[in-house]
């Protein structure tokens, strides 16, 4: 597989693509929780390599599934691999990947705080009155009865 291609999509090498498309492709590489988890494990050891065995322990994945996710991350150029004997180790390809994860965590924290503030504000609102149950509910016209009424009204 050409390292600049994933699923038939040019990742970073097509200079004719608008920057927003290239950015969207970058986020496609991040678009799986297990890939984000792998990147977080690698980000916890900046500048050092993490053996596949440690990634298996940290993620709980089967080796074949981890291998597939690592291949995607390599194709998106987010990680690099180095083989020493029969041990393969990974590291973040760029320190900015760890920065991106930190920014995402901070953004999610801000969103959560804003949501919590909204819930607290809503908790202070007066209760809405309950719907009256004193009599039969007003009938709701079906589509057939509306169509029949229109037909009958026409000359």
Structure description:
This protein is mainly alpha-helical. The chain has a domain of 92 residues: Winged helix-like DNA-binding domain superfamily/Winged helix DNA-binding domain (Arc Repressor Mutant, subunit A). The protein is 54% helix and 12% strand. A three-stranded antiparallel β-sheet has the order 3-5-4. Strands 1-2 form a two-stranded antiparallel ribbon. A hairpin with a 2-residue loop joins strand 4 and strand 5. Helix 2 packs across helix 5. It holds the Pfam family HTH_5.
Main beta-sheet strand count, sense and barrel state: 3 strands, antiparallel
Instruction: Output the CATH topology of the domain at 5-96.
Output: Arc Repressor Mutant, subunit A
Helix/strand structural class: mainly alpha
Based on CA inertia axes, which overall geometry fits?
Answer: elongated
Order of helices and strands: EEHHEHHEEHH
Helix share bin: 40-55%
Distance between the termini: 71 Å
Instruction: Give Rg in angstroms.
Output: 27 Å
- The CATH class of the domain at 5-96 is identified as Mainly Alpha
GO molecular function: DNA binding; DNA-binding transcription factor activity
Protein name: Metalloregulator ArsR/SmtB family transcription factor
Region (Disordered): 127-155
Biased composition (Polar residues): 142-155
């Amino acid at each position: 597989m050409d390292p600049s291609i994933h699923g038939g999509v040019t990742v970073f090498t097509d200079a004719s693509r608008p920057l927003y498309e290239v950015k969207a492709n970058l986020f496609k590489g991040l678009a799986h929780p297990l890939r984000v988890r792998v990147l977080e494990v690698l980000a916890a050891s900046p500048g050092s390599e993490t053996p596949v065995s440690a990634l298996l322990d940290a993620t709980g994945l089967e080796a074949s599934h981890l291998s597939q996710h690592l291949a995607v991350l390599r194709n998106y150029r987010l990680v690099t691999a180095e083989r020493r004997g029969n041990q393969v180790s990974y590291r973040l390809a760029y320190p900015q990947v760890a920065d991106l994860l930190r920014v995402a965590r901070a953004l999610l924290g801000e969103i959560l705080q804003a949501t919590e503030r909204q819930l607290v504000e809503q908790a202070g609102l007066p209760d809405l009155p309950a719907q009256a149950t004193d009599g039969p509910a007003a009938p709701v016209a079906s589509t057939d009865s509306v169509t029949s009424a229109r037909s009958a009204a026409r000359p």
